[in-house]
Amino acid sequence: MDEVLKKFGNVMVASETCDESKSIFEDLYKNWGKFRNQEERRKQILEKQKSDRNSNYDNIRGILESVNSEDANNIFKTNKIHYRPNIFVAGFHKIPLTYKNVLMFSEWMIEKPEDFNDNWYVVPCPKGVRMLVVASKGLTKCYTKYGQYRFEFRTALPGGNPRDTRCNHCCVLDCFYYEKGNTMFVLDLLAWNIQPMCDGETDFRHFWLQTHLAEIDELKRITKTNNVIFSLLPKIPCTPDSFNEFMMKYPAFPNNNPSLDGFLFYHKRAHYVSGETPLVGWLFPFMVPEVMGEDVKISQAYLIQKPIDYTNQAEFIQNFNRKHAKKQRKIGCAMDTSEMVKNENDDSVDQSISSNKKGGKTEENSKMEAEVIDEHKDQIACSLQSYT
């Protein structure tokens, strides 16, 4: 173990300088020091979870309050582009990021957990854009992992389209968006119909997603009220047989569409927390034998993806973190043009989810717009009355 800690000493120092998503267990990290192994931190976090159920509930309850308190009159907002700097400039107010630091992020898995075969799942992750998907008040909005608004559409999720505007219907999901296939790959669940799910364990959250998404058949196809396909990512138990079988399967997704980015490893008892946690680990496929042991059977198709200059995991992570830190510095100094990006993305997403828009407004779109106006006519009337 001392050899492993020495090997990753520089990696952990480097990762501290570029970590954008602070964990709610940050105080524990400070007390433990930089070089304590992941196994010890996992055990202490699992113990801390038992006494922190209320704080976890408060965290997601705050998100739900943000969902329910969004401006009820946003149907009057235009798509005008606004340029806002990311630093203080007289006359400008920085756009508040309501959903910043909400998603749960993994740590690099640098050692095989002691209970790996009994208490862990592996999840194949597609190459796509990480999204926080919020369905509420008849519309589904998507935000980046940094909390920036990207685009919106209609979905069959609770509260996700104009036919479902009940105040107690909403849904918050953690997803990967694969634009080419117009598909949201569902990774995890934060809330369902104003019921917080973050204090539920991984097993429970996945079971809930399996049962409730299966009940909404419309999520599997494109319709007027569901503009994107939803597909639940599998969680495979890491027992020796099932893990070897999974690692020998290639490609991870049918016809390699989408292509695989890497593997997430979830502890069965992990709660959903904002920021990084050692209860969720990340590995690229070619790293699996190095971390999990050479006895793990793995498809040669994964091993040939190893970079030519790859030497070991520690050096790879150190270089990766250095490049990531440089990228984050550029983002921090850049102008915030999220509204401009929003409109550009709206155009691209609209093309992928509604080919009818290419030729202008169709009769079907006109009917859909009339439907929205009809369902919100009482709200519009009240709003107009308040202005007079």
Automatic annotation (TrEMBL):
Domain of life: Eukaryota
Keywords annotated in UniProt: Cytoplasm, Nucleus, RNA-binding, Transport
Snurportin-1 m3G cap-binding domain boundaries: 103-285
SUPFAM superfamilies recorded: DNA ligase/mRNA capping enzyme, catalytic domain
GO biological process, any: snRNA import into nucleus
Chain segments carrying region Disordered: 334-374
InterPro entries in the cross-refs: Snurportin-1 (IPR017336), Snurportin1_C (IPR047857)
Any single Gene Ontology cellular-component annotation: cytoplasm
Major localization class: cytoplasm
Transmembrane regions listed in the UniProt entry: none
Location(s), subcellular: Cytoplasm; Nucleus
GO molecular function, one term: RNA binding
Basic and acidic residues composition bias: residue spans: 360-374
Function: Functions as an U snRNP-specific nuclear import adapter. Involved in the trimethylguanosine (m3G)-cap-dependent nuclear import of U snRNPs. Binds specifically to the terminal m3G-cap U snRNAs.
Family membership: Belongs to the snurportin family.
Protein name: Snurportin-1
UniProt source species: Manduca sexta (Tobacco hawkmoth)
